[in-house]
Amino acid sequence: MSTGATPIGVGMLGCGVVGAGVVKLLQDKSALYAHRTGRRIELAKVGVRDPHKDRGVALDAALLTTDLHAVTTDPDVDIVVELMGGTEPAVELMLEAIRHGKHVVTANKEAIAKFGREIFTAANEMGVDVYFEASVGGGIPVIQPFKRSLIANEVTELAGIINGTTNYILTAMTEQARDLADVLDEAQRLGYAEADPTADVDGHDAKYKLAILASLIFGCRIDVDQIHCEGIRGVTATDIAYAKQFGYVIKLLAKAAQHERGIEARVHPCLVPVGHPMAAVNGVYNALFLKGDAVGDVMLYGRGAGQMPTASAVVSDILNIASDITAAKSSRLMACQHNHTGTLLPMSETISQFYLRLSTHDRPGVLGFVGSGLGQHGISIETFVQSRVTGGLAEMVFITRPAREADIQHALTQLKASDSVHDVSSVLRVGP
Ligand code: NAP
Ligand code: HSE
């Protein structure tokens, strides 16, 4: 196919870690991409905060601008690639680009999860595409497989390790028996964790990604604030050691499932059986495990972050849109086709197995008291160990049979108030 036609113009908002990777790919593989899409892809403008910064790529200074509106309104730009992060000014700039008839590619999970309604409504009205493959799972193809390759299925449930930073921390804590603070410090020094690790460590990054996935598979908008979200700050080396003793590893899981009464969507640490494929997902790797009614179990695995894996997803989106522009078509499959907000099941109604670690007074009858306290709320015990009697205290660790979240919380409140239980040290769920 001839590639002599007018090039497809790309305008970038942001050129940091991911943006520099995108520039590298567009420069190094320009002939290949022209061959694959039928048109040359040309960088038209790159909006940044500091035009004098060294970005590790050979970028023509004439392309750089601090005027971000010059990118979103440039007539030579067909596709605006947002790689700034955060919601402001990123969301307003994406909306401005859409109003000017530009297609948008973004890696910004927070913007899509919180402002997807505004962004996709505007895109549908203007007849432009918004692609966001890199927003979940970094380099792992996730959005395209859901929208195209698995479209014949109803996906009934999924569980994912979708935050690389927390998986790196939990893996190091497990393999080296270290504490969270120590590993987090190292992850920051090595550049795996951000200077402000809150979004990762407290589970918000995984929550945004889960909102995007749940919206895709259940065909509705998801109110991100209704997703139950617990990070990994409460996970201790002691819990990891007990989990190992019981045959589990602890992972930060994002889970979603469709029930008759609503959608279950939650992010929290979880004990995963060592034999489950998710237990072997270590370090900064991500994985998504899902069940389709026709296909059965599927696992998607790979690098969930990092410059070139993420740039791979971003550039693939650019090329897919470029190819559609060249063919003068738009992909209905990739567009947002729903408007209603899904009903989320309250966390209190969800069912899980629980890992409970209690510090109790070392007296006759206390084990029976705890067992009947759980039993009164319909909670049955599957496994139990007692150890480390120190200072008049005994540590009891239970794994329960599946129980309702509300029943566990009520039982623990009662046990905490008793004079037999000194402290409820840990409550974790068992999964996936
Ligand atoms: P980054 O390194 O911090 O880069 C951000 C870029 O945006 C920088 O070039 C910065 O300009 C520019 N920028 C930010 N605010 C600006 C403003 N107000 N005005 C002008 N320019 C502004 O971020 P990143 O790691 O590349 O991440 C980009 C996006 O990709 C985020 O949404 C992130 O969540 C997502 N993502 C990242 C990864 C990853 O591994 N890093 C993986 C998946 C998804 P200056 O360079 O001049 O400061
Ligand atoms: N902070 C994210 C992670 C980067 O650790 O997975 C990719 O979204």
Structural class: alpha/beta
Q: What is the CATH class designation of the largest domain? A: Alpha Beta
Helix content: 25-40%
CATH fold title of the largest domain:
Dihydrodipicolinate Reductase, domain 2
Q: Over the alpha carbons, how many angstroms does the gyration radius reach?
A: 24 Å
What percent strand? 25-35%
Query: What is the CATH homology-level superfamily of the largest domain?
Result: Dihydrodipicolinate Reductase, domain 2
How would you sum up the global shape? elongated
Task: Please tell me about this protein's structure.
The protein is 36% helix and 27% strand. It is an alpha/beta fold and 432 residues long. The strands form 2 sheets. Strands 7, 8, 9, 10, 11, 12, 13, 14, 15, 16 and 17 form an 11-stranded mixed beta sheet that branches. Strands 3-2-1-4-5-6 form a 6-stranded parallel beta sheet, with helices on both faces. It is elongated and about 85 Å long. The chain folds into 3 domains: 8-138 and 307-326, NAD(P)-binding Rossmann-like Domain (Rossmann fold, 3-Layer(aba) Sandwich); 143-303, 2-Layer Sandwich (Dihydrodipicolinate Reductase, domain 2); 348-430, Alpha-Beta Plaits, CATH 3.30.70.260. The longest helix has 20 residues, at 307-326. The protein has helices spanning 17-28, 30-37, 68-72, 90-99, 109-126, 143-149, 164-176, 180-189, 198-201, 204-218, 237-246, 307-326, 366-376, 405-417, and strands at residues 8-13, 41-47, 64-65, 79-82, 103-106, 130-131, 155-161, 228-229, 248-259, 262-273, 285-292, 296-303, 351-361, 381-390, 393-400, 403-404, 421-430. The mean pLDDT is 95. The chain has 14 helices and 17 strands. Bound molecules: NADP nicotinamide-adenine-dinucleotide phosphate (NAP) and L-homoserine. The site of L-homoserine has 8 residues, from helix 7. L-homoserine (HSE) is lined by residues 138, 163-165, 200, 205, 304-305.
